[in-house]
Amino acid sequence: MFLSRTLLRRRSVLPGFDLALGLTLLYISLIVLIPLSAAFLRTTELTWPQFVETVTSPRVVASYKLTFGSSLAASVVNAVFGLLVAWVLVRYSFPGKRIVDALVDLPFALPTAVAGIALTGLYAGNGWIGQYLEPLGLKVAFSPNGVFVAMTFIGLPFVVRTVQPILEDVSAELEEAAATLGASRWQTFSKVIFPILMPALITGFSLAFARALGEYGSIIFIAGNMPMISEITPLLIITKLEQYDYAGATAIAVVMLVMSFVLLLAINALQSWARKRQGK
């Protein structure tokens, strides 16, 4: 046994556990923990009443509602249609499939400012799509609807690229076996396929949700940025920084951080439950 452990250590390509763990903790501390700790420490410049007044002002609360509400709605839509897109890309062959597959990654590569300008051009009152929507009473650009559209645009790839590899590993024989046993198409999907995809779908949902919460560049072009109406929380943070109100900016950022952390913990707990239910 001692000899096998020695050979395993010698054949290991990566450094030893102690060194790897130390480098991991150092990197996480430098990139994540220290900056986040600095944000919490900066808020100590405010007294507790000042902190509460800053983070609960009507303008800030309205931005919370818009940011978190739109992020949640966009993530739910992306979860549904991201699953559909992944299903089409995996289960069907059609002309231009590679082009469609590449287009899914476009929001990853596209600069956020370019995405914002493109979406604004499409959904403005004189845009290709907006000119048909506004006469119907549906205004997208320069309204809260624009925030939702931008968040949906940037979040779709996270769901598709998370679900797609899992769906590729699901054997078609499972569907054939379910059909042989008399299951309908809906029963096959809901009882056989969907439980396998659920953990990956929840992961994609959480990634899209986190990405939408922190999105700034594409939203400020299409939202209109009207206080109490279409102003997102990241924009408020930038505004306070431009006013040299660093303590106020970090106070709002800390609230965003805590709320995001709590929501992601809940999503991770749901993901863990899904995996246990699946038997993993």
Structure commentary:
The protein is mainly alpha-helical. 79% of the residues lie in helices and 0% in strands. It has a single domain, classed as Orthogonal Bundle (MetI-like fold). The longest helix has 34 residues.
How are the secondary structure elements laid out?
Blueprint: H1 2-11, H2 17-42, H3 48-55, H4 58-91, H5 97-104, H6 106-109, H7 112-123, H8 130-133, H9 144-169, H10 172-180, H11 185-214, H12 217-223, H13 233-242, H14 246-278
Helix pairs in contact: 2-14, 4-9, 4-11, 7-12, 9-11, 9-12, 10-11, 11-14, 13-14
| Total count of domains | 1
CATH class: Mainly Alpha
Q: Tell me the overall shape.
A: globular
What percentage of residues falls in helices of 4 or more residues?
over 70%
Which fold name is given in CATH as the topology?
MetI-like fold
Number of helices: 14
What is the average per-residue confidence, as pLDDT, rounded to a whole number? 85
What is the multimeric organization of the chains shown?
single chain
Termini separation (Å)? 30 Å
CATH architecture: Orthogonal Bundle
Specify the biggest β-sheet.
none
Reading the helices and strands in chain order gives HHHHHHHHHHHHHH
Rg estimate, integer Å: 23 Å
Q: By CATH's scheme, which homologous superfamily applies?
A: MetI-like
Structural class: mainly alpha
Instruction: Count the beta strands.
Output: 0
Give the percentage of residues in beta strands. under 5%
Poorly predicted tracts of residues: none
